[in-house]
Amino acid sequence: MPFDEASNFNVGDGRPSLLPFRGIYVMQGIFKEETLMELEHFDVLHDDVFIISYPKSGTNWMQVLMRLVYAEGDHKCLEGVASWEKTPWLELQKSKVLQLSRPRIITSHFPHRLAPHALQEGSAKVIYVARNPKDIIVSLYHFCKNALFMEMPKDFQSFLEVFIDGKVLMGSWFEHIQGWMECKHPQLLYVMYEDMTKDLPAVVRRMCTFLGKTLTEVQIESVVKHSSFTAMKNNPMTNFSKAEKLFEDNIKFFRKGKVGDWKNHFTVAQSEWFDAVYQERTVGLGLDFTWDLPEQPAS
């Protein structure tokens, strides 16, 4: 998310509660309802590219990848300006979106039903980033614990319950992925976080084909190198170090990024309960997540 917007939040006022908005939940004091209401009529340009994802699905990673692909692997594109300034969130930074040069790379966490009408109809390209929900839950739980502008979860069990009920940031994960998975227009590319972890060069090639970009193998290697977990963690323009004051005890934005970290948090009973809910609520979507990747080397 764009932490320059969150920086306006007065951490001395204590943790805010989430604010309900048209069936989802947004951050009180950061999101503006009148701005959100206007977005359904946002003027989508034919050469816009949207990065759409549920929170904690690999959004920041995809933002960096997109910038590198359009820069043909030149890592200088990641210097000087924070990631969220070059690929701004529509629901939080509309004014910055309007200042972008074309083609615009625009980020959003909105579910399909709240996206601009023109985007729902396929008027611009969309890359939808999906991640296995158990790892999302763990990542979002830690984010909410440590971000001073987020409502503090009581404990992991309680957070799991509200996640399943859809009473977390951006509402129901089940509704979010269903809405975008059922959108079948050719302007939409689905990318799995786990595939990015397993074989990033292959994902970059898919992105290039989708975006109409022709990169050499050397350029693709540069994209992969400069979007690695280590490279992003060490780059102040991508590691959110500018926003450390907004987190408990300056805890870093980046955690592990590993596939299967959920196993370190879920009990057997919690895992079985979530599996049952997941199976019931994703029937017919054709989802095929990777839930664990053994022996993931540091990238």
Automatic annotation (TrEMBL):
It comes from the Eukaryota. InterPro entries: P-loop_NTPase, Sulfotransferase_dom. This is Sulfotransferase. GO terms for molecular function: sulfotransferase activity. Belongs to the sulfotransferase 1 family. GO terms for cellular component: cytoplasm. It is found in: Cytoplasm. Residues 47-282 form the Sulfotransferase domain. The lineage of its organism: Eukaryota, Metazoa, Chordata, Craniata, Vertebrata. Pfam families: Sulfotransfer_1 (PF00685). Transmembrane segments: none annotated. Its main location: cytoplasm.
